[in-house]
């Protein structure tokens, strides 16, 4: 594959308002659990959210800020495996409520495990693909394909299938790296694709076959095997370390890092800079070459600028040097009006005028 002149990074905001953001999913979880007659689950969830707020306060953060659903999932995973944690032998006394909720006394159910299962099922339900009329703007990636004459390279942190559905509706050829035989990185090198979609955190369509261990996509199902509809999707959810040392995740993370280094422009769409690993890659890429440009698309450009300043507080020059621009209005406006396409073209010219990459 040749070095791209630009790449796109999609965060949860790229699927909004059609699908809930990570913070909105926490609100949905609270709403559903509080309406559930199961008082034990209510108390367990309240205990977890209270603990997250308490930790924030201890770290000097204002606890009133929204809680990301990933934070809830990570806390659940940590609680479910606390007895296997390296520090467990050195903890003399845990909060007494833990025994009540985790069933360690042998008399009660494991509420944390039940909540974790509930949350995983709920995420699949909440991220169900909307009608095509609500996501057709994502098909406007076709404008970038036509404008620059090369496959559009989209790296996404989203599990949902909105982009895939929109591209299918526009009859655009795309790949997520899968064939009926399973995962194959070679798919991204094929020139016939209009869009190369790198799903860094997995997909609701991916699953691991329990019989042969091969990872398949339900969008490119195996021809000689029955697709397992009851197997949970292969997604990185509620895991502290997003960098997984197995393919396809290892390949996808490495490719994102390399593309960030060599491209001229990075289009960031609907990403709130809440992933430290992704932020480090972006920061290293910008520091790697002073000619590299970043354009951030968000419904509120001022908010996006403030968040980015907070996340990159150790390198304020990245923003103040004029290398980062912001587009207001969100993804729908940016794609339908071609403002993102035009901005990328302008920034590519500016970067090229600064000298050879």
Present the secondary structure layout.
Elements: E1 6-10, H1 22-35, H2 39-58, H3 69-80, H4 96-102, H5 111-126, H6 132-135, H7 141-148, E2 152-156, H8 162-169, E3 174-175, E4 178-179, E5 182-183, E6 195-199, E7 202-203, E8 206-208, E9 215-217, E10 234-235, H9 249-262, E11 265-269, H10 276-288, E12 293-298, H11 301-311, H12 317-323, E13 324-328, H13 331-336, H14 339-353
Parallel strand pairs: 1-2, 1-11, 2-6, 3-6, 11-12, 12-13
Antiparallel strand pairs: 4-5, 7-10, 8-9
Please provide a brief summary of the model.
This protein is of the alpha/beta class. Helix content is 43%, strand content 13%.
Kindly give the count of domains.
2
Query: Helix amount, in percent?
Result: 40-55%
Count of DSSP helices? 14
- Termini gap: 17 Å
Q: At the fourth CATH level, what is the homologous superfamily of the largest domain?
A: TPP-binding domain
Poorly predicted sequence stretches spanning 5 or more consecutive residues: none
Radius of gyration (CA) equals 22 Å
Largest sheet: 7 strands, parallel
